[in-house]
Specification:
By secondary structure, the chain is mainly alpha-helical. Helices cover about 50% and strands about 10% of the residues. It contains 15 helices and 8 strands.
């Protein structure tokens, strides 16, 4: 015989206390057995419809509340159906425990984070970069310290997460650790993504961070000017390791290929066309998007200079990204460049100084950089004074004497 099943919501009023908003409770009924739970939501009493067990009206707030309640009802319904299909009996308490994630085992945040990061590490060099894994790995340390400081716990059940958790974590990263906005944004995205995966896997009844948004202000993207690039190419350096790291950086400046993709470049990716020109193509580790680059004379010179040094398969043998970035800071000083260099600046230099400043279209540049969306390429598009001069000169030629006095 099919069991009877119902979910309804009601307000938990406090007669002895005036409340501007009242907590919403849920009640699960299965064959006469009843189990109650918190909907983790509070609403103004004037907005509540007792008979319907939901917010009344069509205001934005009412729709938000009802959407939240409908999501809970749907999730509970899924757990109820799953128990019915699996077990010979079902009770309200059993359904509630399944909804709250209190089944055979709690699903914990750090535990889930560590599992995801471990799986991610296996994909490094295949379809994920080392930098991505490193960011998630570092996130675990920050989350562990945050929970110990704010909640005095070593881990927390996924079902107990609230939006306030990520809000407090944001404050912790920004104020206590003093991290920069872009770094904070990266760690918040890691947390949101892992929780989203947990929700999609059915490990938690709802996604508490779904509506939380934080967009870091766009930082100033540095790049080398033509004069700085020439200085980088011609300055004599003291150490062979510096010379090699400088050449790897310059290869990226003239091709736009990022560190992760350069580290995995093979001779199979080199192709020569019918005109005798050489091309490099491949799929980016970060996005799996195809990139195609025609090799200019200087990167061809670097290829010939180090041919065979990394063996017969790979083009180059790069040091770790941290090591190269540290080396670039010393190289910049020796070259008289007053900029905080990192390997990624080479990609911006290629986009701005090599391509856009010399008339390459944004659409073509997007293809060469391997971007999925042209909006990403626009981040690299710096409007320089020479570019403005060139466009104005072209405009002057086109207008001619049309508007002469």
């Amino acid at each position: 015989m099919r069991s009877t099943f119902k979910v309804l919501f009601y307000l938990k009023r406090n007669k002895d206390k005036k409340q501007p908003v009242v907590p919403v409770m849920g009640r699960i009924t299965v064959n006469g057995s009843i189990s109650q739970f918190s909907a983790k939501l509070s609403v103004p009493e004037s907005l509540w419809e007792v008979n319907g067990g939901r917010a009344k009206g069509r205001s934005v707030e009412a729709e938000r509340i009802n959407r939240h309640l409908d999501n809970i009802r749907t999730q509970i319904g899924k757990h109820y159906q799953s128990i019915c299909d699996r077990d010979s009996f079902v009770t309200a308490e059993k359904v509630k425990n399944a909804y709250l994630g209190f089944g055979e085992k709690y699903r914990l945040l750090l535990e889930s984070f560590e599992k995801f990061t471990s799986d991610l590490q296996k994909r490094v060099g295949i379809d994920r970069s080392y930098g991505t894994w490193k960011r998630y790995h570092k996130s675990i340390d920050h989350l562990r310290s945050f929970m110990h400081r704010e909640y005095h716990v070593s881990d927390i059940p996924l079902a107990e997460l609230e939006q306030s958790f990520i809000e407090q974590y944001h404050v912790y990263l920004k104020s206590i650790l003093g991290l920069k906005p872009m770094t904070v944004s990266g760690y918040l995205k890691c947390l949101k993504y892992v929780v989203k995966i947990a929700f999609n896997n059915g490990w938690m009844p709802r996604n508490p961070f779904a509506l939380y948004q934080y967009t870091a202000p766009n930082p100033v993207r540095n790049f080398l000017t033509e004069e700085e690039l020439r200085r980088m190419m011609t300055t004599r350096l003291r150490y062979r390791r510096q010379d090699y790291n400088r050449d790897m950086f310059l290869f990226s400046c003239f091709t736009g290929i990022c560190y992760a993709d350069m580290a995995s470049l093979t001779y199979d990716q080199l192709e020569q066309d019918t005109n005798g020109d050489w091309w490099l193509s491949g799929n980016r580790q970060k996005t799996e998007t195809k990139y195609v680059v025609k090799l200019l004379p200087y990167p061809l010179f670097i290829l010939d200079k180090y041919r065979g040094l990394a063996g017969n398969r790979y083009l180059f043998k790069l040091s770790s990204l941290d090591s190269i970035d540290d080396s670039l800071k010393n190289i910049a000083r020796e070259c008289g460049i007053d900029k905080q260099l990192s390997f990624h600046i080479a990609r911006h230099t290629y986009a701005t100084t090599i391509c856009l400043s010399n008339g390459v279209s944004l659409e073509a540049l997007s293809k060469m950089l391997g971007h999925k969306h042209i909006t990403t390429t626009q981040i690299y598009a710096k409007v320089t004074q020479p570019m403005i001069d060139r466009e104005i000169n072209m405009l002057r030629e086109k207008l001619g004497s049309k508007f002469s006095i």
